[in-house]
């Protein structure tokens, strides 16, 4: 189970990240773009809540996700 306490990430995005990290379930287009380091794709697919927290999601992935993820 991921620890999101240090990151300002919307709950629906946290849930998608947990499904991806814990169970290998592919995330939607926005998170797939973030994970693939595709900034333009992430911005194009972000909802209003995620648009401003892309750096937080990147920090979370860098600091908390396994390297293979």
Describe the structure.
With 69 residues, the chain is mainly α. The chain has one domain (11-64). It is 61% helix and 0% strand. It is built from 5 helices and no strands. Helix 2 (29-35) runs antiparallel to helix 3. The longest helix is centred in the first third of the chain and has 13 residues, at 11-23. It is globular and about 30 Å long.
List the helices and strands and how they pair.
Elements: H1 11-23, H2 29-35, H3 39-45, H4 48-51, H5 54-64
How far apart the termini lie comes to 14 Å
| Average pLDDT metric | 95
Shape, per Cα inertia axes: globular
Based on CA atoms alone, the radius of gyration comes out at 11 Å
Following the backbone from N to C, one meets helices and strands in this order, namely HHHHH
Tally of individual helices: 5
Supply the number of structural domains: 1
List keywords for this structure.
69 residues, mainly alpha, globular
Summarize the structure.
This protein has helices spanning 11-23, 29-35, 39-45, 48-51, 54-64. The chain is an all-alpha fold and 69 residues long.
């Amino acid at each position: 189970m991921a620890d999101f306490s240090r990151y300002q990430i919307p709950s629906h995005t946290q849930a998608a990240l947990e499904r991806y990290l814990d169970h290998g379930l592919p995330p939607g287009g926005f998170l797939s773009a973030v994970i693939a380091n595709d900034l333009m794709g992430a911005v194009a697919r972000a909802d209003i809540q995620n648009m401003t927290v892309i750096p937080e999601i990147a920090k979370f992935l860098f600091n908390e996700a396994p390297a293979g993820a």
